What does this fold into?
Amino acid sequence: MSSVVACLAKTKAQEDEGAGSQANAVAFNQQDLEQLRSQCLQAGALFCDPSFPADWSSLGYNQLGRYSSKTTGVEWKRPSELCSNPQFIINGAKRTDICQGALGDCWLLAAIASLTLDPQILTRVVPPGQSFTSDYAGIFHFQLWQFGEWVDVVVDDRLPTRDGKLLFVHSAEGGEFWSALLEKAYAKVSSSYEALSGGSSTEGFEDFTGGIAESFNLSKAPPTLFNIMKKGLTLGSLLGCSIDISSSYETEAITSQKLVKGHAYSITAAQQVHCRGSPVQLVRIRNPWGQVEWAGAWGDKSEEWDSVQPEEKLKLDHSVEDGEFWMSYSEFLTQFSRLEICNLTPDTMTSNRAGRWNYYNFEGTWRVGSTAGGCRNYPATFCSNPQFVIRLEDVDDDPHDGEDGCTVLIGLMQKDTRRERRFGRDLNTIGFAIYQVPNEFKGRTNVRLGPDVLLRSSAVAQSRTFINLREVCDRFKLPPGEYAIIPSTFEPHKKGSFVLRVFTEKQADASPMEEDVDANIHEAEIAETDVDPHFKRLFIQISGNDSEISAYELQQILNKVVTQRSDVKTDGFSLQTCRNIISLLDVDGSAKLGLVEFHALWNRIQKFLEIFKSHDSDGSGTMSSHEMREALAQAGFQVNSIVMQEIVSHYADASYAIDFDCFIGCLIRLEMLFKMFRTLDKKKNGRIEVNIQQWLCLALN
It folds into this structure.
């Protein structure tokens, strides 16, 4: 219950206050920087972070665990204990501030190094004005993007050391600490330093920008990649490239043409020039080292520039700053191994450039028994997965492949992947499929595609693969239209939380595909004269002298009836279910059922029995929880995925089957809740306001 309330409260805060946006980052672990700093300054004490303590639990759980030899002799020290004049940043952040320590997080360090190439993005991740002098209280903060929202992370400045030296990231000079503290903040949101071992620099790119990253193997580059790069640069995307290494001995080895292996370069331009009358595609690349530059064709002093018209040469500024150089696109494909493009959200963009991506972000869950349906290979459960719709109307301007269409980037990311490592939980194998929305459903918001659509048509596009990575990301070119995105795990019954992100070049519309919560529960009025005489005689026999049926009597009657049936399974009706039934149908307030009320109940049970049997597809006497949504709809109840998840958690058994008494109990409870709400919704606007007494009475009903 508490988790549901917390989730609803978070959603409301995001809607009402913009919480989690870059302009309004959420305090991680509810730790407010200014409040904590003020408390420390008033007390004359340095901050000690209780949520990420200076002990073995923050180091790790296995290789860096409590009894590991790798943590022997580790001491946590503040920068003032390591040098006489510690500095946060000296003359701006530089690549030399980031030297790897005894932790396999080079992927993270490459991403941190890329921050030093873009001061505007750096100042968002590493807020300026922090120091070891002014208002120093041993507390620092950083802002990171975490699974759909920006968080402000505070850390104390106690850092793991051995023999008086930092154990992990450190600066070359030794007196600069912004990179070590940023690494600690990243370790904190990941639960430990050890959780940072192994990864891709695209993960760091995304967590420092909130963008969506694509990765291209240049040996298998798509034919339109140059145009994709060019378009990405106009949209403010960050582009990086690198040369793969075959062993650690090749790290930062310099080739004969002055390229550095295993080293992160950035791409700053992609242009076409004319050389001897023929067009040549060029890319401009920057080496953060500044000194080591490409010595091949189209380098700064290359003779190829002599054949370029002066006006073109001037436009390209071919003899650029140290560390930046041009090379032909064809040579780029052969010299480099990998290209990464991080496409930025509009709020990350600092310039007022006209071109920028449009961005949509959705959170969702795969819950076993309700929304964890698996891929299309599992037709019995596939349609239970969450669904999202995107409406594409306008084709791209200046398409990169020369063909009209709508470019869409879709990224599916599973949440809390590093935090789960200490519990030995593996990543889910994830992917997504895209279906065309049929004409009869276009433009509707209150809709969800069922088996009649998803199982009778083929996907128009899908992720290249289902894979056990943090994120699956793919680029598509789709005709204008309306499409449903179905994110899923490969196999059904795998729980997890995810973020689905959609980037489009032109304005689009995207939203969850969900039916509105509603109910059609109108029952025909029945008078005593309408009751069949045979039913009336039966009622007199079972109701006793008072001609009314109590909750205890109703329990006995219902259990006697259902145990005589072989086509349904039941553990027996609970007394609480019988009380709910009476509460719903008791018109005269006697807390018992009279003849007409019992007749209404009997009609309901007959109707519900037919529905139950029609959805017991295997004749087992129970209903799969994945069939519950359609069964509810047939009974007149329309619910969304969040409500469906709660229904399954309350009424399904350990194997996610729902027996007959639970089915009846669910329907009765739903009808009672809808009637309560509509009674209190006096303005008929879908909202109610209750005081604490009313709330307790409703909750206890």
